[in-house]
Design a protein that fits this description.
Layout: H1 3-27, H2 62-69, E1 74-77, E2 87-91, E3 98-106, E4 122-126, E5 134-139, E6 149-155, E7 158-164, H3 174-184, H4 186-190, H5 202-205
Antiparallel strand pairs: 1-2, 2-3, 3-7, 4-5, 5-6, 6-7
């Protein structure tokens, strides 16, 4: 190759490298960093069954909550629940508030499971093959300023409600995590299997007032002597 041609080729190569370096530098400037939003769940769709598995929240594996929020969270139940651990909450060390909550119970007297839930603007429905039930998700858009959302899945008059607050502290996609966690609960929510951590089925745990036609109040077994 003639010397002049070599110089032109070398100059072109140097110019190309300069452009690449300039683009790379721009991409590293504050505010110009690419954002990769999670699109998949980190929660397994099948609940673990090992003897060492822990269910601080009845029906909700601790391991799934740790997968979403890390190992340093605090998992607690509401002591005022009608039955032990039907309601549960998770607190994160980086927030002085609840980042996750769950509740399973029964639809009766026109009760609305959505009444106290945080609802994002993105609304969608979901179902599972072979399950006679319906789910609804109301989550915030990925990257939205207010990153929260909830799902409710209902089988007959059993329901499971899940809520995430401060989604920026969570690994994985909010909607997909909630749906995967719901799917892992289907055996006890919809298929009459015992609730892990409670060892009762939904029907065995049903209180007298939560039937479609309420049963009479139970008669006290101990009556004072006259």
């Amino acid at each position: 190759m003639p010397f002049a041609s070599q110089r032109r080729a070398l100059a072109s190569l140097v110019a190309l490298m300069s452009c690449c370096l300039a683009l790379a530098a721009c991409s590293l400037l504050p505010g110009n960093q690419p954002t990769t939003l999670p699109t998949a769940a980190v929660v397994p769709t099948t609940a673990p069954t090992g003897e060492d598995e822990k269910y601080t929240c009845a029906g909700i594996p601790d391991s799934s909550l740790h997968a979403m929020f890390g190992p340093n969270i605090t998992i607690d139940t509401y002591p005022s629940s009608p039955i032990r651990a039907s309601e549960c909450r998770v607190e994160h060390p980086d927030r002085e508030s609840i980042v996750f909550s769950s509740e399973f119970w029964y639809v009766y007297d026109d009760s609305d499971p959505w009444y106290f839930l945080a609802s994002g603007r993105e609304e969608s429905t979901f179902t599972f093959d072979g399950i006679d039930g319906q789910g609804e998700a109301r989550t915030s858009s990925p990257g939205a300023e207010y990153d929260y959302g909830s799902t409710v899945f209902t089988c007959g008059d059993h329901y499971l409600a899940l809520t995430i607050n401060h989604g920026s502290l969570m690994a994985g996609d909010m909607r997909e995590n909630l749906i995967a966690l719901t799917q892992s609960a289907l055996p006890w929510l919809c298929q009459d299997q015992p609730i892990p951590g409670l060892d009762k089925t939904m029907e065995q745990a049903r209180p007298y007032y939560a039937y479609p036609t309420p049963l009479p109040s139970p008669t006290p077994t101990n009556t004072p002597n006259n």
